[in-house]
Structure formats: structure tokens, C-alpha cells
Amino acid sequence: MTDTPQNPGAAKDPLHGVTLEKLLTTLVDNFGWPALASQVNINCFKSDPSVKSSLKFLRRTPWARKEVETLYLDFIEGHLRPDMSRSKRRTPLSEFKAQKPKVSTAKPAADSPWNDHPLMKKQDDPS
Questions:
Q1: pTM of the complete model
Q2: Quick one: what percent of the chain has pLDDT higher than 70?
């Protein structure tokens, strides 16, 4: 497809017009199920793999779909070698480092009923 006024995003998205089935079939034809299973750790690639079961799982599991799409993009751009190693790696969504959870520094109010709770008292408090 070309970039037209009715379809302005077609040229910017390399996955535009590529079905998940075509994407998966291309990867399986070029690398095989064992190689895909080594890159994306999901059971539908390891145990009795089929395109049908894999499509069903990938459509319901966004993180796995993102991993497979990343492999496909690396393949079509020439970054993925036949042994599934990459000359240049994209960072799929599942590999972003999780941020540390924010810890509240708020202190309980002086008149809170929780102030008298036994678990809220300090260990060195003799009372």
C-alpha cells in the first residue's frame, strides 16, 4: 500500500497490511518452530506447535505478540541472522525495565485509630 490521504500512516508503520498469520508463517518458514521457541518462551511454540494455536495465543497475549512482531521486524530489516542472532537488537516492550514502585512517605495522622494497633508500635517501645 502507498501513503495516500485516506491512509496516511501506511508508510510509517512497517507492519501495516501484514496479517499476524503472514508474519508468523514467514518466521516459521525461515527459522522453524524450535528457533522461535528459543526466542519467545511460550508453550504454543514448544509443545505440538501449529499456526492455528499460535495465532489464537498471540491474539490474546499482547506481550507475546509484541515479541513476535519484533522478531519479524528484525527479520525484514535484515537485523536477524539465520541462527536467530541479531546484528542490531530492537527492544521489545516486554524487555523494558520496570520502574521501582513508589513508596509512600506519608505518616499516619496523630488521631488515627491505627496508632494504637499492636503492630504499629515500635519494638523498643516498653508499653
A1: 0.60
A2: 59
pLDDT digits (tens, 9 = 90+) for 30-64: 889 998 998 888 999 999 999 999 999 999 999 99
Q: How many CB atoms lie within 10 A of CB 19?
A: 10
Can you tell me the distance from the alpha carbon of 2 to that of 19, in angstroms, rounded to the nearest whole number? 17
Cβ pair 29, 20 in contact under 8 A: no
Q: What length does the chain have?
A: 127
In degrees and rounded to multiples of 5, residue 26 shows phi and psi of -60, -45
CB 27, CB 38: distance < 8 Å: no
Q: Which amino acid is at 118?
A: P
Q: CB-based burial of residue 60 (10 Å sphere; 0-12 exposed, 13-18 middle, 19+ buried)?
A: exposed
What cell numbers appear for 31 in the block?
Answer: 527459522
In degrees, to the nearest 5, what angle opens at C-alpha 89 toward C-alphas 35 and 96? Answer: 100
Answer yes or no: are the C-beta atoms of 53 and 44 closer than 8 Å.
yes
**CB contact set of 107 (below 8 Å; sequence gap of 6+):** none
